[in-house]
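testing teh design pipeline on a random one, pls ignore if ur not involved
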């Protein structure tokens, strides 16, 4: 009988519908966005790697496959959890405190925490171990 009148939509609604259709058609799927976000995150963290916290996040993002498994619910805590937490706690202690506590003439295992490069590498290693300690596979 009567035809339903269709009113024109705003430009924003049209763009949202186009994006929604592209997302449904597989033009931009969730898997691709996940991989792109991992690569961008690693590059940003490499740029910001002057602080041990960013190195810890970088270590977590290196194990992105295990991180994806953890986000999907495949969690199993194993024995790597204890060394990862211990290493993270030790690495988050600032370099200045190592010099104050142990002085200037130290053995190697104390001296390595005074150097910025080794502290950042050990912090990234603690992030890797932490993710591996929660991964089921």
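output:
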């Amino acid at each position: 009988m009567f035809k339903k009148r269709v009113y024109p939509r705003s430009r924003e609604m049209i763009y949202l519908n186009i994006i929604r259709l592209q997302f449904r058609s597989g033009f931009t799927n969730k898997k691709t966005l996940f991989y792109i976000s991992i690569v961008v995150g690693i590059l940003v963290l490499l740029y910001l790697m002057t602080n041990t916290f960013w190195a810890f996040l970088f270590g977590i993002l290196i194990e992105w496959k295990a991180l994806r498994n953890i986000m999907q619910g495949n969690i199993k805590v194993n024995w790597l959890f204890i060394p990862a937490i211990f290493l993270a706690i030790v690495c988050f202690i600032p370099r200045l405190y190592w010099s104050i506590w142990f002085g200037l003439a130290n053995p190697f295992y104390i001296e390595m925490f005074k150097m910025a490069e080794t502290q950042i590498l050990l912090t990234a290693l603690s992030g890797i171990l932490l993710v591996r300690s929660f991964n089921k596979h």
